[in-house]
Design brief:
single chain, Four Helix Bundle (Hemerythrin (Met), subunit A), Rossmann fold, 2 domains, 13 helices, 53% helix, elongated, binds guanosine-5'-diphosphate
């Protein structure tokens, strides 16, 4: 039984949501990562939602105003808040419910429904059928780009793939060394190139090595920062050209790394980067460090870019493939159990 089914059984009183019972052991580990990584967000979200229902009088305009305020302060975003509040209001009226418990249930059901209709799991990485799959990582300094390259390298390696990393962020002091440390720790080779000042030569060497030695994945840490849209476009276009010369299928993924602790700013960054180059997916880091984890909802609602991975801590294994079921379950679990 999937987690959405479990949530629904909890709604109908058929089942209390018990997390470990008859979960596949692998899934139990992933769920545990999600639950721990999302603790701050869950606590603050549950508190805000519970507050809505204490001192309850009747369901009126004030209730919906308070609901909107609670959602916005959880960084769910304006557009998502409006869509959700409308959906909840419509369902409450249609079903004629007045009691707090019933309204709460409608609210949780609508949150799950908005997610479920988008599809549950994010699309998997786009693979190169013929040669190494090349993934470029872009993002502003400090968002967790280099760390994410290391973590994704680890998860691909764990899945049995042969992984190569390229230290193409020659702009940020220390980024090359930092990736080298990840490489040594994980036993994944890192191409640093002959000339550390020129990312193009690093990428050239890396793609040649990946082809010649039969690597499955080439992960490229770039200095793809947004100092100006024109510069970013030029930088990435140059990298793509170099890669295409050696690897006819070119680049499969351009992943934008965003820091979840910056809340709605992450959304603004995603929009700006997406105007400069085609972003194929997002990596949302540091969810463990923020109560603003609702930003995942607004990013999914407002952008047509899938969140492919989320960062739930600093360990190599704390990066997880984004999955809507796990996310929603971890977000609303406390509310289900009350
Ligand atoms: P870059 O400049 O984008 O390459 O950023 P770094 O990879 O150097 O990461 C900046 C800081 O964020 C480092 O201290 C990382 O350990 C930390 N970091 C990255 N991802 C996560 C995460 O998912 N959770 C937490 N708590 N810290 C993270």
């Amino acid at each position: 039984m999937g987690l959405f089914d479990r949530i629904k059984r909890a709604f109908t009183g058929e089942d209390k949501v018990v997390k470990d019972q008859d979960l596949d052991p692998k899934e139990a580990i992933v769920l545990d990562k999600y639950e721990r990584g999302m603790e701050k967000t869950r606590k603050s979200f549950s508190e805000r939602m519970s507050d809505l229902f204490t001192g309850w009088r009747e369901i009126d305009e004030d209730f919906y105003d308070d609901l909107e305020e609670a959602l916005i302060s959880a960084d769910v975003g304006f557009a998502m808040t409006m869509a959700l509040t409308d959906a909840i209001q419509e369902a409450v009226e249609e079903r004629n419910v007045y009691q707090p418990e019933a309204v709460k249930q409608v609210m949780l059901e609508e949150m799950v429904a908005i997610y479920e209709k988008d599809g549950q799991a994010s699309p998997a990485l786009i693979e190169n059928p013929d040669g190494p799959t090349v993934i470029l990582f872009v993002g502003v300094n400090g968002v967790g780009k280099t760390t994410s390259v290391g973590k994704i390298g680890y998860s691909l390696q764990q899945a049995g793939h042969k992984v190569l990393m390229a230290a193409g962020d020659t702009f940020r002091a220390g980024a090359v060394e930092q990736l080298n440390v990840w490489g040594q720790r994980l036993d994944i080779p890192v191409v640093t190139g002959r000339d550390q000042g020129d990312p193009a030569s690093v990428v050239y060497d890396a793609v040649k090595k990946a082809n010649a030695e039969g690597y499955d994945y080439l992960l490229v840490d770039t200095a793809g920062r947004l100092h100006s849209k024109a510069n970013l476009m030029a930088e990435l276009a140059k990298m793509k050209r170099i890669i295409e010369r050696e690897n006819p299928n070119g680049v499969q993924e351009v992943l934008l790394v965003l820091d979840a602790t910056t809340g709605q700013n992450a959304l603004i960054q995603a929009k700006q980067f997406n105007e400069a180059t085609e972003i194929t997916g997002l990596v949302l880091t540091k969810l463990d460090g923020t109560a603003k984890g609702g930003v995942v909802l607004s990013i999914r609602h407002e952008l047509d870019i899938p969140v492919k991975y989320i960062g739930l801590g600093e360990q190599a294994s704390d990066l997880q493939v984004f999955d809507a079921e796990h996310y929603m379950y971890s977000l609303i679990r406390d509310l289900l159990e009350k």
